[in-house]
C-alpha cells in the first residue's frame, strides 16, 4: 500500500513500535480488522467491538505474519510479537486512512443526507464508472470505522472514490470529513432520522453540514433543491452549490415528463446544462428519480456525456433490503427492511399504493426519532390510511400508534397489530387457518428500522403458501 510503511504508520499515529526494528520501511500489504483475513505483512487493527475484542487475536495474527495495531500492551506478551502500540486503535485507524488517501491523491465524492444515501451512492458510482475507475462504499461501511476500511481498499489504479458517510451525533461528520476531505459533496435531503440525538431538522442540517469543514478548495456541492432546508445553503468556502430537483424550476438539473413503470422503475427526461436526454431509472418511486438526478449532476460535473450518464443510471444495481422486489410462485415481496424513518416509510408506502392487485404493508417500529416518536409514527399511519391498501400489519409497540392512526383515517382498512416479530411469524406459518393472512398474488411491502430484524419476515414470506 503506497507509502503505508511501519515508520509512517507510527509517525501519523504517535505509536510505539514493538519488534519492528528491521521493518521500518516495510509497506503493509493490507489493513484488516478481522483476524481471519490476516496475511503476511498486513496490519491488523485490534478493535474492541460489541461482540469481541480484537486484542484476543493478536497472537494468531502475528503467527500468520501480520503486524498488530493495538492499544493494550498486555496482549503483546508472547515471543515474536510485532505491533504498533497506540492510545486508541480506532483513532489510529482514522489517522492512517487519512494519510493513505493523501498518498493516493484520489478525489472523493461524499454522499450525505437523511434518506437515500445508499441508493444515491450506487447510482453515482454506476454513472461515474462510465468514465472512471471507481471504488465505492460496500454495505453499511459508512461510519467512523467503515469509511477508513473502505479507503484501505483503494489502489493507485482507482481514479475516484464514492464514499457514503452516515452519522447520528454532532461531530461525527466533522471527523469523517477530516478523513476524506471530499472534493464533491452530494446531499440527498434533510429528513427525520436521528432526531433523538440531533433534536430537529435544523439540527440535522447543522450536523450533516459539518462535511463542508474539510471540502477541498475549488470543489463541488450538489444539493436537493426541492428540500426546504438544503435550499437555504449559500456559498460554502467560495463554492456555489448546484441544485437538482423536480418541483423547483430554478434547479440546474431537473426531471420532467416523469412516468411510472411499476416495479421496473421510472422514465423521465433529464434536463442538464449539457442538454436533455430520456432516462430510465431501474427502481420504482419518485425518490429514485431524485437519486438519479443527484447521480446525473455528479456525472456532468466530472465531464461525462449525457449518454454515459443515461447508461450509468440504467445499469445501477438493486440492493438487498432496499425496495428489492422478490417474486415467488405465491407472492410479490418488496424487501425494504434495511432501515426506516418517516420519510422513507411514506415513500415506500406511496409506491405500494400505486401498484395493481391486493396491496399489503407489514411495518415495524422506527428508531431514533426523539421526543416526537409517537407523533411521527401516527403521521405515517395517517398517510397509510389515505392510500389504496388492503391490509396493514404492524409489529412493535410504537407501530401500534401507526396502526391506530391508519384505522382512524380509514375505518374500512383491515389492520392487525403484533407486539413481536415471533407473533407475526406464527401467524404466517399457521397452515391450518381458515382465513390465511395473505392471498395468492398479493404484493407485500416489508419495512422497519434495522433493529426490528424484519429480514426474518422476508424469509418467511419467501416460503409462504
UniProtKB/TrEMBL annotation:
ATP binds at residues 113-119. It is found in: Cytoplasm. This is UDP-N-acetylmuramoyl-tripeptide--D-alanyl-D-alanine ligase. It catalyses: D-alanyl-D-alanine + UDP-N-acetyl-alpha-D-muramoyl-L-alanyl-gamma-D-glutamyl-meso-2,6-diaminopimelate + ATP = UDP-N-acetyl-alpha-D-muramoyl-L-alanyl-gamma-D-glutamyl-meso-2,6-diaminopimeloyl-D-alanyl-D-alanine + ADP + phosphate + H(+). Gene3D superfamilies: Mur ligase, C-terminal domain, Mur-like, catalytic domain, MurE/MurF, N-terminal domain. It comes from Bilifractor porci. GO terms for biological process: cell division; cell wall organization; peptidoglycan biosynthetic process; regulation of cell shape. One of its GO terms (molecular function) is ATP binding. Its EC number is 6.3.2.10. Belongs to the MurCDEF family. MurF subfamily. Transmembrane segments: none annotated. Residues 112-298 form the Mur ligase central domain. Pathway: Cell wall biogenesis; peptidoglycan biosynthesis.
Amino acid at each position: 500500500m503506497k507509502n503505508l510503511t511501519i515508520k509512517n504508520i507510527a509517525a501519523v499515529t504517535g505509536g510505539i513500535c514493538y519488534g519492528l526494528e528491521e521493518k521500518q520501511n516495510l509497506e503493509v500489504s493490507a489493513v484488516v480488522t478481522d483476524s481471519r483475513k490476516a496475511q503476511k505483512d498486513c496490519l491488523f487493527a485490534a478493535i474492541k467491538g460489541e461482540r469481541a475484542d480484537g486484542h484476543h487475536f493478536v497472537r494468531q495474527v502475528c503467527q500468520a505474519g501480520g503486524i498488530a495495531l493495538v492499544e493494550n500492551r498486555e496482549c503483546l506478551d508472547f515471543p515474536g510479537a510485532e505491533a504498533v502500540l497506540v492510545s486508541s486503535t480506532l483513532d489510529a485507524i482514522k489517522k492512517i486512512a487519512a494519510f493513505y488517501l493523501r498518498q493516493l491523491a484520489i478525489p472523493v465524492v461524499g454522499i450525505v443526507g437523511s434518506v437515500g444515501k445508499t441508493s444515491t451512492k450506487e447510482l453515482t458510482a454506476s454513472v461515474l464508472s462510465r468514465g472512471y475507475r471507481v471504488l465505492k462504499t460496500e454495505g453499511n461501511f459508512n461510519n467512523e470505522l467503515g469509511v477508513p476500511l473502505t479507503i484501505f481498499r483503494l489502489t493507485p489504479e482507482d481514479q475516484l472514490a464514492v464514499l457514503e458517510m452516515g452519522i447520528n451525533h454532532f461531530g461525527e461528520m466533522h471527523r469523517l470529513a477530516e478523513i476524506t476531505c471530499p472534493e464533491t459533496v452530494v446531499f440527498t435531503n434533510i429528513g427525520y432520522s436521528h432526531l433523538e440525538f440531533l433534536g430537529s431538522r435544523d439540527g440535522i442540517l447543522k450536523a450533516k453540514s459539518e462535511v463542508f469543514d474539510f471540502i477541498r478548495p475549488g470543489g463541488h456541492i450538489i444539493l436537493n433543491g426541492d428540500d426546504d432546508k438544503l435550499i437555504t445553503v449559500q456559498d460554502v468556502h467560495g463554492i456555489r452549490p448546484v441544485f437538482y430537483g423536480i418541483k423547483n424550476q430554478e434547479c440546474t438539473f431537473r426531471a420532467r415528463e416523469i412516468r411510472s413503470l411499476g416495479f421496473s422503475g421510472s422514465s423521465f427526461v433529464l434536463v442538464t446544462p449539457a442538454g436533455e436526454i430520456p432516462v430510465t431509472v431501474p427502481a420504482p418511486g419518485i425518490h429514485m428519480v431524485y437519486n438519479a438526478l443527484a447521480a446525473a449532476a455528479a456525472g456532468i460535473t466530472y465531464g461525462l456525456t449525457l449518454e454515459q450518464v443515461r447508461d450509468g443510471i440504467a445499469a445501477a444495481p438493486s440492493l438487498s433490503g432496499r425496495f428489492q422486489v422478490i417474486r415467488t410462485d405465491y407472492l410479490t415481496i418488496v424487501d425494504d427492511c434495511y432501515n426506516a424513518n418517516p420519510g422513507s416509510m411514506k415513500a415506500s408506502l406511496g409506491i405500494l399504493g400505486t401498484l395493481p392487485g391486493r396491496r399489503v404493508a407489514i411495518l415495524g417500529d422506527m428508531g431514533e426519532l426523539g421526543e416526537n416518536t409517537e407523533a411521527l409514527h401516527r403521521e405515517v399511519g395517517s398517510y397509510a390510511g389515505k392510500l389504496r391498501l388492503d391490509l396493514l400489519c404492524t409489529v412493535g409497540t410504537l407501530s401500534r400508534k401507526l396502526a391506530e392512526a391508519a384505522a382512524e383515517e380509514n375505518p374500512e382498512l383491515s389492520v392487525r397489530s403484533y407486539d413481536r416479530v415471533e407473533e407475526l411469524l406464527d401467524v404466517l406459518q399457521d397452515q391450518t387457518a381458515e382465513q390465511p393472512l395473505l392471498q395468492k398474488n398479493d404484493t407485500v411491502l416489508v419495512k422497519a428500522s434495522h433493529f426490528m430484524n424484519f429480514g426474518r419476515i422476508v424469509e418467511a414470506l419467501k416460503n409462504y403458501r
